[in-house]
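Workshop exercise sheet. Pairs work together: one partner reads the sequence aloud, the other fills in the structure field after running the prediction. Swap roles for the next sheet.
Pair: D.N. / O.F.
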Amino acid sequence: MNKRIKLRTKILILSSILVFSSVFVSGVTMLISISKSFEEEIGERAIAIARTIAQLDDIRNSVGKVDGSKMIQPVVERIRLSTNVDYIVILDMDGIRYSHPSESRIGKKFLGGDEKAAFSELEYTSKAIGELGFAIRAFVPIMDEEGIEQVGVAVVGILAPTFQSLLEEYQSDLILSLVWGLLIGLAGAWLLANNVKKQTYYLEPYEIARLFEERSMIMETLDTGIIATDSKGKVTFMNNLATAYTDFTLSKNSSIKDIFPDSWILEQIQVNREISNRAISIKGEMYLISIYPIFVKDLFTGYLINLKNRSDAQRLGEELTGVRSLVAALRAQNHEYMNKLHSIAGLIQLGRTDEALDIIMDETSFEEDMVQFLRSRIQHYSISGLILGKRSRARELGVQLLIDRESYLEEVIQGLSPGDIITLLGNLLDNAMEACESQIEKNVECFIKGNENHLYISVKDTGKGISESEKNKIFKQGYSSKAKEGRGIGLHVVKEIIDAKQGTLRVTSEKNEGTKFEIEMNV
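Structure field:
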């Protein structure tokens, strides 16, 4: 795996490069500006000296004359030394030198290449590499006394500093600027990097990207609709379930007003108050909505809206708490009693009161015995009610449900609730009775014993049994041998409760002989 460069290091490196580049470019620009200023100043100085020389009578009366250099050279050299210029050259109209710092060149033709315009009565400066080096040269025409005819040219040359020489001269200043610039830049970059790291909770960019992807994946896999907004109500995120619930497609400028027009939500979200599980109708379907203000370091940044389908929430709640099993059992018991009441009412109407009385006495004694047993052995009425209801349901299905007379439940084991035991026992009894539906012999045996430190539940049926391949699947959520919609939750919930309490669940089964589930938990 490639080693990632940390954000602080990246900022320091980038800042160093930027500061170095800025200081270096600034230094070079400064040197170029200094060079241009020098050239302008030297050019003006050279022109002024050349004009002065061109006005001297000794110069203009001697140029172009035989042995004129003998008069011109001493005068020009005195001027050159006093003005501290590098060279002064006087030319006649044929370009012949009448003065030069090197006397050996006097009488020879000037070959600079930039002097032609000067013989047309023009004055100017030029840059050229002469015999003494790079120089700024001023060309001024020499006119006769009347100022009518040009008799020669005065050339003044001053050596100009090159960029390389300026770089060498200011090298120490440039290096000092680079060092100070880098130190200040690194200090600023360090402070900036620390501030950025603090703002990002000391996470690296790739860690932030990973968290963002994880958050998006988590949000999409939740079984609730999620909507996130900023402080102004603009929607910043919607998961797929929220899109399906609201039938709204998120766009760039979507607002919470677009999703819930003319709703009480618009008023509630303006007070930054938390709302939990309040009913709301969306497209004719009822949902439970929760609104949570989001604060980042005490600064309000938006809302998190949670949408749950009310029907799904109720169904799942009933499944998890065992209420569904208890309600179904009581419904079966009520159905059985109604059938018996109808029979008794019919016998009374027929005048056969003795037979009606026998049914009443049989039922009363049968139920009274079981009720007394449960009252004395099971200390929680909700669990006793479940067992009574399941007996009624079993009689409806033609199944004989036998409760072991050694059963007892003094207290619920620590860490569980009566609702958990209803879930465990109710699901096991339901599965056992369903397993017997297609069998000739339909018997289910139940044994339960427990106190605050121990719980044991055994449910045995005479059903068709469970194959070895099915034993590995029956506890998976969504799996059901009945293949009906909404099934495959019961045993999965049973297994989760047992695992949470670190209990044991044993399943023994033989084909067409039956299955036995045993649950055991200890503190």
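Discussion prompt: The two ends are 46 Å apart (CA to CA). What would you look at next?
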